[in-house]
Amino acid sequence: MDQKHKVLLTKLRLELCAEALADGLVPQYLFQELIITSDQLEQICTQTTSQRRTMKLLDILQTRGPNAFKVFLESLSEFPWVRERIEGLCKENLDQFTTRSLELPEMLRHSCPTDKQLNILAGKLGSEWEHILIHLGLDHNQLYRCKSQYPYSVHSQAFEGFIKWKQQMGSKATMQSLWEALNQTGADPSVMQYIMQ
Fold it and tell me: pTM for this structure?
């Protein structure tokens, strides 16, 4: 999936969760069109609430191939107002989501992010949190422990990973290294805005 589409779905995450997309035919259509696997369909369907099912669907969708976004839009036949909203945002200037010329202020570069700031950042990320933390120096075993500890919450998994990174790196766990990891892993660096406020 294109980065701009990932950013758009992340931006609309709460709005999409409120629509209970995963309770309709959307996951079945994505499975039929080979966008998601049977295991992924099961992961979606076994979530305990409508919102969690939709969150799991969105997390999985962002990890799928280049056709995932197009097929996702096709799958929204039961939700024409959602499809129109997404297509409308695509037709508007999508560059506003992807070409922000953000710079990290000098005074923040060597500061260590607080737990509160990391919690906010974790809440803005989807499944890309794993790539970011690998870039920051965590290994796959540490990521596995984060996922095992919080199997139903991507937010909690990401937050736990950031805490482990901060504990492991100490004073080297800086805003600058976080900024670089976001840029180099293809995550939208504008999420840093939320923790710079």
Answer: 0.50
